[in-house]
Specification:
Helix content: 25-40%
Bound molecules: flavin-adenine dinucleotide
Structural class: alpha/beta
CATH topology of the largest domain: FAD/NAD(P)-binding domain
CATH architecture of the largest domain: 3-Layer(bba) Sandwich
Shape: elongated
Radius of gyration: 23 Å
Strand content: 15-25%
CATH class of the largest domain: Alpha Beta
Number of helices: 15
CATH superfamily of the largest domain: FAD/NAD(P)-binding domain
Amino acid sequence: MDGRDTDVVVVGAGGGGLTAALAAAEQGAGVALLEKLDRPGGNTFVSTGSIPAAGSRYQRDAGIEDSAERMVADLSRQSGPHGTGHLLRLLAEGSADLVEWLVESHSVDLRLITDYRHVGHSVPRLHAPPDRRGASLTRDLLAAVRRLGVDVVTGNPVARLLTDDGRVNGVVVDGPRSGTYELRAPAVVLASNGFGNNRDMVARWIPGISGARYSGAEGSTGEAITWAAALGARLENMGAYQGYAALAHPHGSIVSWTTVEKGGFLLSPHGDRMGDESVGYSGFAPVVALAAEESHVVFDTRIRDFVREHEPEFAELVEAGGVREAPDAPSLAAVIGCDTSAVERALEDQRHAAVTGTADSMGRTDFPMGALRAPYCAVRSVPAIFHTQGGVDVDEHAAVRTTAGGVIQGLHAVGGVAAGISGRSGAGGYSSGNGLLTAVGLGRIAGEAAAQTAAHTAAS
Ligand SMILES: Cc1cc2nc3c(=O)[nH]c(=O)nc-3n(C[C@H](O)[C@H](O)[C@H](O)COP(=O)(O)OP(=O)(O)OC[C@H]3O[C@@H](n4cnc5c(N)ncnc54)[C@H](O)[C@@H]3O)c2cc1C
């Protein structure tokens, strides 16, 4: 094609879009990075910014042995079978180089997390900003793209794709501030996340959780998946999502799952356990949603102080009064609003399992800080959906695959627009970091491929 306005258009300035822009600009492509809201970052901004990487030099420095094979085995165990095994292998194999590239070539500050275990991973493998905030990851990625001369154009929502004879060759922007205009480019990267904030799409694809609270960023309204599907894109894993079992209520911040992993548990308003929390924060979300509208996360002051020291967001929740302290079981029952006998039963169940090394009544065996001790802590919480993991199927260049078996020329998809690696449906297949791995990992692949497409079309 020519008559191009730029080489590569990236739709959405979250983790996936910023990384795609970075990779494309690094290859020398001209990039237009369009963001519909007034602030970049999307879900990436509100996340904890943790990206898995197997075999990184930071793991080696910490004496941790890891490999892409081990990562594939871990994540497959958590997800069960799904239609995107090819992506899991591709992303795992590129993950160490991805994180090292971000840190060493682009000054993105990521450090290996070794002080707690992550759902789905058998070794410490998650690399995150020192303050564990996606806002810091977003800030560093923004600085990196700006160093390469890419501006983030906020307040410019993409409304549809331009095509010519089945090939995507640009976008139409249409918004109250931007006005309506066309932007032509030989390659477009869809990086506008999934459909968590689109009630109709959630009801269609994940009806079981359509009533749950959505607590991700507002921009995730799913339009890019609809555009690609209209061009014949193949959709995969549409019922899969990342849930979170315990969002502090009414504060709205996450109750760190480390409180549970260290030995805490969740109680219903009647003071009953609802299941085995070791399935993870995502897998436990539908368990809570089915059992009760809200619950309490119960732990003790030792766990509170440990987590407060390591996780600033949790420290803020403590400061804000979201973590109630109870000197004994009757006071804990009063905080929850249930019978003391129910709380005593739950504490005794946990104590017996932790002390004897046997399973508790829910089948759970993992209590690393032993039996809970008074004084206890409780946080009122609700289950939530964080983001959707289904989307368009992509190949090894993050090019969008069609139902007919080919690819849509000129179109790439990353992050929440692309089909994820967390199983075919439900929340239980999600391992920590799957969201950002498909955003940042596919973002790099798509940015490089889009830059090459732009160079080839210019030469031909
Ligand atoms: C509280 C929370 C914690 C999380 N923690 C983690 C974690 O630690 N690790 C992990 O891997 N995942 C985590 N996740 C999930 C992770 O945040 C997402 O999977 C990931 O950020 C998705 O990145 P993305 O680039 O695809 O989308 P986003 O970061 O959401 O970026 C998409 C951008 O596109 C914009 N956009 C949408 N439509 C348009 C349009 N039409 N035109 C232009 N722009 C558009 C949006 O406004 C947004 O800015 C967490 C999620 C939440 C909610």
